[in-house]
Structures
1.
Amino acid sequence: MVGGAEESDCAPSPAPAGHPLPQAGEGKKQSPLDARLAPQLDSLRERSLYRSRRTVSGHHAVQMVVDGKPCLNFCANDYLGLATDPRVAEAAKRAISNGGVGSTGSALISGYDAEHRAFEEEYADFIGRPRALLFSTGTAANMGVLKALLGRGDVVIADELNHASLIDGARASQAEYLRVPHADLAGYESALATLEPSRFAAVVTDGVFSMDGDIADLPSLARLTRAAGAALIVDDVHGLGVLGERGRGSIELLDTEPDVLINGLGKALGCAGGIVAGSETLIEFLIQRARSWIFSTAPPPAIAAAARESLRILRTEPERRAKLLANVHRFIAGARERGLAIPERPVATPIQPVMVGDDARVMALSNELMRRGFWVAGIRPPTVPRGTARLRITLSAAHEFGQIDALLDALHDSLAVLAPA
């Protein structure tokens, strides 16, 4: 099982004109590769696991046009509504006007721009760590960090619902991989207790889990890793901008300082990229050894400029975070009033799963909601474990109470219409 992967599980949509969905055995004789792949695609369709893209026209905002149809978006990770903020867009435009679009090379060759450096310094100051390093994507950050820091003879102890990029990076490192049942502190403790003193180990976890919306017990994990002489690596992409008094994420909420903090620019900051924060030694080592950073073209300077503006807004406009949390509580209260099954959490986050279970039914519900004008992603295996298909509803500071109430009514009615047989 590959748990916690944040993939697009959109409901099937018609193929674009001129691009019909491929069918096994169609047309001229298949190549050996196509002959191998086509039956697997057919199997995915038969099991309601086939994925299709939807096309967005215009702004990626709360109100948007998807496959030519206006709808309200309740499946994006734009928690603070910054992806379409005109100030963020203007910062990107200025950077393009000043320096063009591409960075033209990797950061160690010709691609390290003043905008990259400024963002790294401002983010490190915000998060309270000595240094930070900007990656092209969050996945590149996770892969680069884990492959650089771990190798044969080392041990990774990881939550089973970690994001797919954490799983892939840990396995690619060739360290021994110990998977712990979700949020099972006794499992972590047991795994750490079996370590030989000579072996280096790292506990790896999401801060906020991307498909469930719950928060890792970081203080307990920090205590366990310290006692065992291990390192704590936290991916908090869904906590940044959302949790904590200043929006620094689950590490601030839970007053925990991991050895390695990984964050993303594509959620609350509304941009793109990954960022790693830690000690001077850590960042210098990653510059020498993180292959996904060394051998990738640096992100466009305009992305770093936009992220700087998003970070400035995050720091100076706490009312956005307050509005987001008010929207989350509005959804939770409304869901309970309507008898909808949503998980109870000690701390509310913008990720609110509605558990369905059956793969075909979750996609039927997603399609029905889209028909009613609401875009809500249906999430199926392998993104989540088998039997746990769900509607993944995400809230933003840009949503209004009336829109949330309308979604809840549509969700209640759709569940009634598509009740299990």
2.
Amino acid sequence: MNSESPFSSVAGAGGDAVVPVSVLNRAIGTMLERTFPLVWVSGEVSNFTRAASGHWYFSIKDAQAQMRCVMFRGRAQYAEFTPREGDKIEVRALVTMYEPRGELQLNVEAVRRTGQGRLYEAFLRLKAQLEAEGLFDAQRKRALPAHPRSIGIVTSLQAAALRDVLTTLARRAPHIPVIVYPAPVQGTGVGAKLATMVETASRRREVDVLIVCRGGGSIEDLWAFNEEVLARAIAASEVPVVSGVGHETDFTIADFAADVRAPTPTGAAELVSPQRVLLLRDLDHRHASLARGFGRMMERRAQQLDWLARRLVSPAERLARQRTHLQQLCLRLASAGARPVRDARAHFSLVQMRWQRWRPDLSQHRATVNGLDERLERALLRQHERHVARVETLAARLEVLSPRRTLERGYAALLDAQSGRAVRAPSALKPGRRMTLHLAEGSADIALSDVQPRLTDGF
């Protein structure tokens, strides 16, 4: 498939070439259709008009912005209701450009009332919860068997999807037996019944691959495939599971929990069938692309016809409008050149080079810190040793000067029993006075009976 950008033909013309407005608008429109997928957009309806051809033209807006919309007759006739001015709605649309006017618009494929958005919010919350638990991790998903010996199908016996799957399997691989595990696909408590059938197929191990499928419908119709119990049963299945629920644009929680997600029930049958898978897939893709391109071309022609029918103006006025619009587009194209992007990239490269140059060398600083740590440890050790030596010296000196050492050499200390003070002079010794005599091996209380003081200069 050619992956060339739609702007390559415009850019390849050179800076001095003159590009027709139609070519530029066509390239912009093609780029928009390739870049933006189908998306749900919510807002309020304004300027609603139903053309004689059956196409709907309106705007959808909120408090900050608005966007023009078109819904062609082929899709509008299947809408469940007709929007009115001021209605809060949600549209599933593709971003396109109306080339004759060079205006952006939404090509609406489906419309619903805003209340259905609450189901979509619940879908997003459950999806985020299970994804955080690792239920959707690609590492846990298994490859489908290349040559299955039997194929299982979990769906309703009355579902049209079952007939489509069986027809496809009979056409592609009639030699493979098929086992159907019947379960309802719509209604209250359907998710638990579907989960029971998935667990039954996993427990029996009588099939090599299992298809969980149903046809298309609204988000309410498909809600059974968004229930947590079914998602956990699919994730815990011992048999590889292929999910084929709804149309190509429909996504359910079962799609994320399954090992492989197919766009439709028929696509699921083609994925598990061993014959011509790649060729048929490529053929279907090319056919769908051609059909979509042809359909959009017919829609653009129909829209152009409606516009011309409603906007008949004089040639002079039309030329003046187109001239003004062309001037505006030329100014916008000139201001959106590639130079700002190139300058920004060069500046980023320069800043990155400067950052690499001035980034600190952590290894050198780490070595310095380690050296300082070792020096600090050695200094603390030497200081501790000095303090221990000093304490030992002081303890030795204190031991030498201890009064107990003096008493051990034969001396005695005489203290007054009342005041506890030492008796230093013979005049303090009086008969009847009580004294405490401290010796090296203890002390004794004594009373003086006869005192004869004698003053001497020494022993």
